[in-house]
Design goal:
Blueprint: E1 6-10, H1 14-30, E2 37-45, E3 50-57, E4 64-65, E5 70-74, E6 78-83, H2 89-100, E7 106-109, E8 112-116, H3 122-127, E9 129-131, H4 133-148, E10 155-161, E11 164-170, H5 178-189
Organism: Methanoculleus palmolei
Protein name: Methanogenesis marker 17 protein
Length: 194
């Protein structure tokens, strides 16, 4: 596994610790998350039972805006969007339909979208967010942690925001102060606060 800036698996069971190091490494490689996760600390104690994973992401993908994949050509009667990359065309159309109504959005061909002049300003249209890849990234990170956690640990809490994440799982009910008592100290070991 290419090295993360910080990667620790902590457990009172030495054999279990080694197994979870391999499992975590394999899952992160298989899901191609090594390039986006910067730091990861996992704590597993089968006697409690508890599984805690906390970490930081390397970088967050930026939001995709209309100006990233289309040229905006305002005219007197209409605004013509010349689509340079079709990847985000479907979400663009959904956003435009929701905001301006289907009757005001024309698509004469797959590389052109036409709006009536005056429904939106050019700068506002350029800044319109069409997709947020971080949402998919968040789901992938949580999925990976679910896969790494011991089978049967169905009681869980998860958090991912502003580049920080944690996932706590157990067979038993989790105490209300689990974040303060277990998760926060793990972040402290990485030199971070939650």
């Amino acid at each position: 596994m290419p090295p993360l800036t910080y990667f620790v698996v902590e457990s009172p069971d030495a054999v279990g610790r080694e197994v979870y190091e391999r499992i975590a490494s394999d899952v992160l490689q298989d899901l191609d998350l090594i390039k986006v996760i910067d730091r990861l600390h996992i704590y597993v104690d089968p006697k409690v039972p508890i599984f805690v994973a906390a970490g930081l992401l390397r970088h967050m993908p930026r939001e995709i805006r209309v100006s990233d994949f289309a040229n905006i050509n305002p005219g007197d009667a209409e605004i013509v969007l010349d689509i340079g990359d079709e990847t985000y065309l479907a979400p663009l159309l959904r956003k435009l339909w929701a905001r301006f109504g289907k009757e005001n959005v024309d698509q004469p061909d797959r590389f052109t979208v036409v709006l009536p002049a005056g429904v939106v300003g050019e700068e506002e249209l350029e800044r319109l967010v069409v997709a947020d890849p971080s949402e998919t990234l968040y789901k992938d990170v949580i999925y990976a942690l679910q896969y790494i956690a011991p089978e049967g640990f169905k009681v869980r809490r998860q958090y991912i925001k502003n580049g920080k994440f944690y996932y706590v799982a157990s067979e038993d009910t989790l105490p209300g102060d689990i974040v303060e008592t277990v998760v926060a100290p793990i972040f402290a070991k990485m030199g971070e606060t939650l």
